[in-house]
Amino acid sequence: MPRRVRWLMVVGLTVGTAVIAGAVLAHQAPESSHPHRSSAGDPLSSRSPSAPSPPLSLPRRPSGAGPSTAPGSEHRDASPGDARGDGRGDGPSQADGAVPDGVTVFDDAIPAVANLDPGLLKALRRAAKDAAAEGVEFQVNSGWRSPEYQERLLREAVSTYGSEEEAARWVATPATSPHVSGEAVDIGGADATAWLAGHGAAYGLCPIYRNEPWHYELRAYAIDRGCPGMYADPTRDPRMRR
């Protein structure tokens, strides 16, 4: 075979091989353009999608940070272990004025109700009958209290609020508390306090303190003149300064 022919054949084979190799590389290029695509050997694919996340640390409300209501207020004033108010345990008894659940202004067997001032109790019952016609029930959360019970509540308030000055905004002393004299009642149920806020004056029943919308006392003149302005809290009440 002439040398020139052999040379042309070698050149042709070289060019053909280069063309084939270029085509193969061009075909493989799209695969290499995605370096993060998961595969059986890719470290990314070894992560389990169901692996649990680290637990979140949720903030907790401090146990002593600002109770929404005060001792002896709309919450039952018997201690949690003596919510029945029946004298079992070391909590106050019904004889001291503790109130079990479900007591209304008509429960004469409960000292907290029976020992209320007669005029106050009569007004409460008149109002309660009219409210009942509108589907509203007056529950008694606290009424008359013995001096010993009032002293206990005061000590608890000092412990809760950290000082006698702050406790005085919520709990009076046995010598000044209208609960001890039977002249105040704490009415339970948002619907009941709302009803009294709108109609209480017609029965002589008035809220006394802005920070205790459940606390009612008898003001007979309110039937004709309306209820007087409320004190911000008991520390503004001259009766508490005796």
Quaternary organisation: single chain
Secondary-structure element order, N to C: HHHEHHEHEEH
Under CATH, the topology of the domain at 80-241 can be stated as Muramoyl-pentapeptide Carboxypeptidase, domain 2
Structural class: alpha+beta
Rg, Cα atoms, Å: 40 Å
> End-to-end distance, in Å?
136 Å
Q: Architecture of the domain at 80-241 in CATH?
A: 2-Layer Sandwich
What does this structure look like?
The chain is an alpha+beta fold and 242 residues long. It has helices at residues 3-32, 111-114, 118-132, 147-161, 164-167, 190-199, 222-225, and strands at residues 139-142, 185-188, 205-209, 212-218. A hairpin with a 2-residue loop joins strand 3 (205-209) and strand 4 (212-218). It has a domain at 80-241: Muramoyl-pentapeptide Carboxypeptidase, domain 2, CATH 3.30.1380.10. It has a 4-stranded antiparallel β-sheet with strand order 1-2-4-3.
Topology:
Blueprint: H1 3-32, H2 111-114, H3 118-132, E1 139-142, H4 147-161, H5 164-167, E2 185-188, H6 190-199, E3 205-209, E4 212-218, H7 222-225
Antiparallel strand pairs: 1-2, 2-4, 3-4
Describe the structure in brief:
The chain is an alpha+beta fold. 34% of the residues lie in helices and 8% in strands.
Keywords:
single chain, 242 residues, alpha+beta, Muramoyl-pentapeptide Carboxypeptidase, domain 2, 4-stranded antiparallel sheet, 7 helices, 4 strands, 34% helix, 8% strand
